[in-house]
Amino acid sequence: MPHRMYRPHPLDAKIASVLPPGSLYAVGGRVRDDLRGAAEGADLLAKDLDYLVAGLPLERVCERLAALGRVDLVGASFEVLKLTLGGTTVDVALPRRERSTGVGHRDFAVESGPQVSLEEDLARRDFRMNAIARALPSGELVDPYGGAADIRARRIDILTPQAFEEDPLRMLRAAQFAARFGYAPTAATLEAMRAAAPLVRSVSAERIAEEFTKLLARAPAPSTGFELLLQTGVLREIWPELVEGVGVEQNEWHAYDVWRHNLATLDAVPPGDLTLRLAALLHDVGKPHTKDGPHFYRHEVVGGEMARSMLGRLRFANDIVETVEHLVRQHMYVANPEQTGSALRRFIRRVGPAHLARQFALRHADIMGSGLPRRDGFNERFERLVWSEVERKPAFSIADLRIDGAAVVEAMVRRGLARPGFRGDRRVGEALAYLFEQVTEQPERNEPESLRTLLERYLDALSA
Length: 464
Description:
This protein has about 475 residues and is α+β, with helices and mostly antiparallel strands. The chain contains 23 helices and 13 strands. Among the domains are: about 140 residues, Beta Polymerase, domain 2; about 60 residues. The strands form four sheets. Strands 3-4-5-2-1-8-9 form a seven-stranded mixed beta sheet. Strands 6-7 form a two-stranded antiparallel ribbon. Strand 3 and strand 4 form a beta hairpin.
């Protein structure tokens, strides 16, 4: 019987209509999440539509699907098709069985086609909760390995003891499923992860980053996944720098050691912003390297360098790496609501207007992650002053000045400080930097006439 939470997709009946009865199945996360929704009383929408066609050779599947839309072969060795119809593209695969001939998901003997049964295809999945199919269009559940029971029990269990040896990436998938779904690994899963932990080094950096991205961007409390990776030894193989915070005690402003504080700060950032969550996780990663009694001098500078190295090893996008490093380096700013206007403008200049929202969000998460009550309202008052200054739109960079390098060059040539045809040198940049400082002190100076007067005085001093 169809499960009560099963909701057919409009494409199910269309695809089934061109295939023999009993040959089409839904597989993957869509089936799992249908069952999760039923168990949790939630409405979980399927993001991916993955289909499997059993009992037909690839050529016949292609012919039949071509009657619906465009068909592209994207995995000839695995016999995977992309079907595009009505603006939607879905994966359609034939069943396959795999036999490991090496270590770390690098060497496999793969057999695919009508001679492979649905049950054999499901047996190669990572966890029992993912080894479930649904017959289409009837909606009947096919669950030969007890995956539905695991979902009801909220547990993560491997199908075979060799699951992580065959594909070490599955250990990271276990961590992100634990954090995203709130599921607990079985004892067998934990034992297998500990045994296979060193094999994670055989996984490509890009695949590790992809799983970390899912964990960090989607999980309500990503700390659950990182605790699992710590407990099983997997994290030490990927980011030993993060593990160094375990047991490193802090001062009276923190209730936790560095490790726990980093995780609590991470959890205090809502899902959705990968960059901010990475900054929260790594903001104090430099503390174990800078500990001097109760102090951690310049840990933000050391931590910024470490964050760049850690993220670079996993080949995160350059903009993410640079922003995380910047947020980590700047996170120890002084939130003094009594600062002068020029000091506020220098702060905005240093952090960058585009980074202010994230920098403030990191500070709030840092405070929440301390494990102690909030101490005062200085941060909130300081932030209000900063945003008020931003709204005034003073110059926050040399590019905001009302005159440019060409005006400096013209003045230098006119005064005989440079020959005609002069195209500029470091003196031009120094002059603009001087003008920018004057404008930072008094924003009303950022007018062409005032700037030219200041420039003439500067060049007088330069001539002297």
